[in-house]
Design a protein that fits this description.
There is one protein chain. The protein has about 425 residues and is mostly helical. Helix content is about 75%, strand content about 0%. It is globular. The termini are far apart.
């Protein structure tokens, strides 16, 4: 069909791993994560990072790791129960073949998932669901792919649970979930409006997708009573977690664990074979632990001086825009997590707006280069495995445009309203 990038055939998608992939299933990126953890442990053993400081860092991220691991398990089991498939297909049916309606519904779906669950949920679980929806509905997959790639980053400002960097920032400035949302609702709104505008102009409008209407797909329905119980139970567990967010304060990891336990229990009763070790996101946890050992070490070796030069200590508007620009730039050079943690270390404790501006830069900005955030990297990897071609020059240029517009507008909203 015109306007739909060619999909790889099923034989290629189902072919065994190539010779470049180790037989035990570890990719090059996995070895990079393991190498980062080993480097961090080596920093502690050699004394480059004092053990007391390393222990403080681990105590700080302990609750964050509990949350991250639990919410990914919850989201993965929810995906296996076809909750996301049901929602995606219902949204496409609700759009009734009209692209403007589908565009708004897809934006709401990806934004809500990022805000209420986590940006990694959008990257890991919503991206393949949206790309799979493209085939039965005969929808060009590139607009769907870019919707998840961008909103996994730009919709991650509102709540502490939306992004690991948010949890760090909320802890640093001592804000509860409701206080954090009260501070960040305006930047989030501006970011979403900018993202929608850029998505429509560069990917969704008629001249980009080449078709006037799409074919509403058939709804996804549970095939038997077991599937029905799993669908409703995991959906209820997600809803319980979402409702608990304003009330649990800094115990968000416990709330995520309880919700994940409900989903695990349901699968233990009705589909025990789905409970595998692979559900635990060890790759992400290894990466975060290694990061919080290596970045403080680099800070002691001169990174903190560089970050202080780039960010400064101005508590006013100039300091906020400077911090956001430095965060966005460094995110696209390296990655947003080390960019935020290195920047946080040099922002004066009393400069709350400057710290939140740095957060805005490292959340909205990492959409220019493929490696700028883990969410971007994962979304693009799913595009590759689904045979969806993302033109890299177009990706970089349009991402740069949104990063500049979204970051600038969100920081301005923070200073004016937040």
């Amino acid at each position: 069909m015109a306007g739909v990038p060619e999909q790889v055939d099923s034989a290629e998608r189902n072919s065994p791993p190539s010779a470049t992939t180790p037989r035990w299933g570890l990719s090059v990126l996995d070895w990079v994560r393991i190498g980062l953890l080993l480097a961090g442990l080596l920093c502690v053993l050699t004394g480059l990072l004092p053990r007391a400081e390393a222990a403080d860092n681990m105590r700080r991220i302990g609750p964050l790791l509990l949350f991250l691991g639990s919410v990914i398990v919850l989201a993965e089991l929810t995906r296996q129960a076809k909750v996301f498939d049901v929602i995606a297909h219902r949204l496409a049916i609700l759009g009734r073949g009209y692209y403007p309606a589908l565009f708004v519904l897809c934006v709401l779906f990806a934004s809500a998932t990022t805000i209420l669950l986590n940006l990694d949920t959008t990257a890991v679980l919503i991206t393949p669901v949206m790309l799979a929806l493209a085939v039965p509905a005969r929808i060009p997959p590139l607009p769907l792919a870019m919707t998840t790639v961008w909103l996994a980053n730009t919709a991650s400002l509102l709540l502490p649970v939306s992004n690991l960097t948010n949890l760090l920032a909320a802890d640093r400035v001592a804000l509860t979930a409701t206080e954090f949302a009260a501070k960040m609702w305006a930047p989030q709104l501006v970011s979403l409006v900018a993202t929608m505008l850029c998505l429509w102009v560069w990917y969704w409008r008629r001249g980009r997708r080449d078709t006037d209407r799409y074919l509403p797909p058939e709804p996804v329905r549970p095939e038997n009573s077991k599937e029905r119980v799993l669908l409703y139970t995991t959906a209820a567990a997600c809803l319980l977690f979402i409702v608990a967010i304003p009330f649990v304060g800094n115990r968000i990891g416990i709330a995520a664990t309880v919700a994940a336990a409900i989903a695990v229990l349901a699968f233990a009763v009705f589909d025990r074979s789905s409970l595998r070790f692979a559900l635990i996101p060890w790759r992400l946890l290894v990466f975060v632990v290694g990061l919080f050992l290596v970045v403080p070490t680099l800070g002691r070796l001169g990174l903190s001086d560089l970050m202080h030069t780039l960010i400064g200590s101005d508590s006013g508007a100039a300091g906020a825009f400077r911090a956001a620009g430095a965060g966005a730039t460094l995110s696209n050079i390296a990655n947003n997590l080390p960019a935020y943690t290195a920047g946080e270390a040099v922002v004066p404790p009393e400069n709350h707006n400057q710290l939140l501006a740095l957060l805005i830069g490292t959340n909205i900005g990492p959409i220019v280069t493929p490696w700028a955030s883990l969410a971007t990297l994962l979304c693009l990897e799913f595009c590759r495995t689904h045979g969806v071609r993302v033109p890299m020059l177009r990706f970089v240029l349009t991402g740069l445009g949104l990063a500049v517009i979204g970051t600038t507008g969100a920081v301005a909203a923070l200073l004016i309203i937040g």
